Amino acid sequence: MKKLTTTLATLLIMGSASSFADGHKVKVGMITTLSGGGSGLGIDVRDGFMLAVKGNKNISVITKDDQRKPDIAVQLADKMIQSDKVDVLTGIIWSNLAMAVVPATVNQGKFYLSPNAGPSKLAGKGCHKNYFNVAWQNDNLHEAAGGYANSAGFKNSFILAPNYPAGKDALTGYKRYFKGSLAGEIYTKLGQKDYAAEIAQIRASGADSVFFFLPGGMGIGFMKQFSQSGIKLPVVGPAFSFDQGILKAVGDAALGVKNTSQWSKDIDNNANKKFVKDFQSEYGRLPSLYASQGYDTGKLLISAMSKAKVKDKDKFRDALRKADFSSTRGKFSFDKNHHPIQDIYVREVIKEGEILTNKIVSVGLKDHSNAYVSECKM
Amino acid sequence: MTSILFFEQLLNGIQFGTMLFLMSAGLTLIFGVMGLINLAHGSFYMIGAFSAALIAGLTGSFWLALLASLSGAAIAGVLIEILIIRRLYRRDHLDQVLATFALILLLSEGVRWCFGAFPLYLDIPENLNGTLPILDDIIYSKYRLFIIFMGLLIATGLYILITKTRLGVRIRAGQNDRQMISALGVDISKLYTIVFALGASLAGLAGAMIGAIQSVEVGMGEPILILAFVVIVIGGIGSIKGALIGSILVGVTDTIGRIFLPELLKIFMEPASATSVGSSIGSMLIYILMALILIIKPSGLFGKT
Asked: What is the ipTM of this complex?
């Protein structure tokens, strides 16, 4: 009888011990693009995130590929929430996928930390207490590009972007800061690779500068074809077409182009130096801005976990809101709508030896937030 | 000014069309001769581009890269025909669609394993860089003119091959009556392998030529495959002539439509919504064209009724 009691007591103690440990464990569901077109972006976000949480025994990550398709992303999110019982979701690259997944996720009481997509709807009217964007609101880098265009003296810009939520946010963002007039404004097909027709329009438009937002493979095609067309207009754009992953494929056509980014590998702080060095030794390549966003997302999660248990939603949310981690971008905090307040830099594409990369030339917008804070009732 | 822009856009449309022709010629030949629906045709486009990027990276020569795209895609075509496709000819179309769809996934992931997920670099040769003045005010990219020239050259070559050579006679015979030509002693399985490899190499060449001005990345073949199917449905399945006319029609409609439709709508709409509505309708235009043609000629422009 005594033996039985001891056994039971031991079991109880063990039980409570393991439930104590469980409270500090966080299950992360990462849905991102790992195959097909645009997979370079997802792979960078995943690798950055995994680097940040490497060796942390309290975090377990389930990674799934959304193939850049909204319906698949929704299925994956449902499965992760219903049967895998994840606490936190993250990873989505594309705004149209984020719009399909995020609202349902946060309404079911899960946290969503966005390492990339920041559609305006989720920053304004559709903001939510459980949704945090660690990258930027979609308009941000384009606003900085518009600001740069003013300081460079551009008066008449031709602007183009793909026809999807982030494309519309991009042109809105540029126009919000750019003071000159527009020589033309085009929405292209998402995934379009050939820009002969658009380039002919640019040539005929009499513009003095070109602004474009064409992420991933779309931008590679545009830059190459634009430089072959013999049009000598200055080009400005967000970092998405000039990140480390695709510069190699664009080649010398990108040299000298000014682009805007919240991150660059030469931002001078210890967190960033450590990140660039660790990333290179772990994966054997230079990190891109996507990788830095994944890394910061991981670090933010760890910082919140050290302050509160994830099951205690209110405390955990407060801990996330404090953003008490050393970001690769240096100064970083959340505004009221859970989107970053941060510096946005103007970078230039240069050659370091044989490798094309970026260097910072100036700070475009200092402590920049977003235009949708007032629309967010939270 | 508008007439210059129009002419330039017309050239862009024709250039787009000649590229579509390289894709759809192989697709329609394979369907016409073997009765096979090959969804994996876009993968040969990708294999061609990656072979070219690999050789261009090693040797620095664009012309060797073009040769590599032809031979790389042809070799892949022969292997895949002998190992897999050969077993599908007698099955119904749904089985073929399933099996070739699986091939797309296998080949895409295979290429990603070999080359990684990041796009590769492939550039046009120095002497085709820049523009060429044609007529008074019109300047046009040399490389795109080269693409048009190559497309027309290959169209002529295919015409001669099909109408004037012994192989061409066999291909036409295969299209008309498969049982009869094998009864006449033609080695039908060899003929099938040759036609499949020919189709694959044309797709590979298209991939390399387009990859040089766009991007060489995994999954690049699928968007163009859909257009190639539109082309062969419009042109009539199995007809090379139909593929040529259909390609030019689709290329020109797509290019002209997506540029001039928003401009047209601006006359009676505010600019912002005109651009967004116009570009949405512009991207539907080729499907509307396809629907119209199918209403008038249900088997396509040059299809067998």
From this structure: 0.78
